[in-house]
Amino acid sequence: MSLSAHPASRRNQRTVYVESYGCTANRFDLEVMLAHLTNAGYKVVGDPEKGDVLVINTCGVKTQTESRMLARLQALSGLGKPVIVAGCLPKINMQAIRRVAPSFAAVLDPYSVGRITDAVGRALAGERNMLFLSDRPVVKVAQPKVRLNRAVEIVQIAEGCTGACTFCCVRFARGRLFSYPKELILDRVKKAVSEGVREVWITSQDNGAYGLDIKTNLAELLEEICRVDGDFMVRVGMMNPNHAMRILEPLIEAYQDRKVFKFLHLPLQSGDDDVLRRMNRYYTVEDFIEVVESFREAIPRITLATDIICGFPGESEEAFERTMRVIEDVKPDIVNISKFLPRPRTPAASMRQLPTKTLKERSRRLSALASRI
Known about the structure:
Mean pLDDT is 96; it is low at 5-9. With 373 residues, the chain is of the alpha/beta class. It contains 14 helices and 15 strands. β14, α13 (317-330) and β15 form a beta-alpha-beta unit. Strands 1, 2, 3, 4, 5, 6 and 7 form a 7-stranded mixed β-sheet that branches. A 3-stranded parallel β-sheet has the order 8-11-12, with helices on both faces. Strands 13-14-15 form a 3-stranded parallel β-sheet.
């Protein structure tokens, strides 16, 4: 996604080109950075040839995604202009960034999006290889933000998660759970609705974990959001089964409000409990099924999306067949399928890998099943 947001034109106004990838939380970060840039007087342009500084907001969740990010970073670096690398990749694979763009101007991690104007200003002054990295999360929901879609307000409710999945590298970039104060989230929603927003998208790395660190929970937050006056709908992003189980009854009750989209994104990842243990997921297949059945009993027409990783280390043919059976029995409306590829510094990277041929074959079989159900 390349962006063009033009504030009032000024003579000799410095320009910034921004290119962004990744999840809804990354898009939220992008909107925060755009607000800081435009408030500081920079003009955001949609053509890298017209940018004085180039910003790429990266994703690094999968190997294929990282390869795409690095190719774009290399291409942008070839334009001979200061390049700033934001998003998750700097904390996931800084070595790769240095390899493809050794003269980068700056990197910013997700905790440091509010420092984008500092990075741009110093880049224009000629500084290079600046590191804007922090171990302390900030309350980004309180920062200014540009709304790229006039009808949709993206509201990040937390940073990080409580998990330690053996395959996941995003936790290196996003850290441990840091829930934002409920009052500030509600203020953001109220302001957006007053400005004509029709949809509010709730996002974080695991929405179900919201509030564990501040003595509240997602169900309570949804109830209060739905009490905000106005004609709008709420879309809830991904939540893991273990956290949905913890607040299942009040969560379903909150979902029954007319303002909540009847959409549940609940990752399974594997239909085999041994594989789930190797993944260090904190739930069982039975837990996943219980959450799904409970939601469907209360909201029969709910749309279910799930995620599956094919070919995780140690996944036997029998384990994969169990995953196939769960998908066939549960019949999710959406099945996001990924072939396992190891990510840097994750425990799964040191596990014995399955042959590439096996990964491709299982992915094909599961894709065929998902398209058939």
